[in-house]
Hints:
Elements: H1 6-16, H2 19-31, H3 37-50, H4 52-61
Helix pairs in contact: 1-3, 2-3, 3-4
Amino acid sequence: MGVYTPDKIVIACARAHSPRELCEKADAAHNKGEDDLLYLDALAVHARREGWIELLMQSLFGWEDDVGP
Length: 69
């Protein structure tokens, strides 16, 4: 069984959730006063692949349903 480092956990989270889901989870965690950094770091994985501008445009003008990277 492998060791899960923080980087591997972030990548696994990014693979399991779409950018839209990660934004929703980060918002929910933030609103509860919980730590939202895992979700934001996982969102950055998507942003490196798709580009921050693309993700911002989707969040402003409607999300495309997609799967993780």
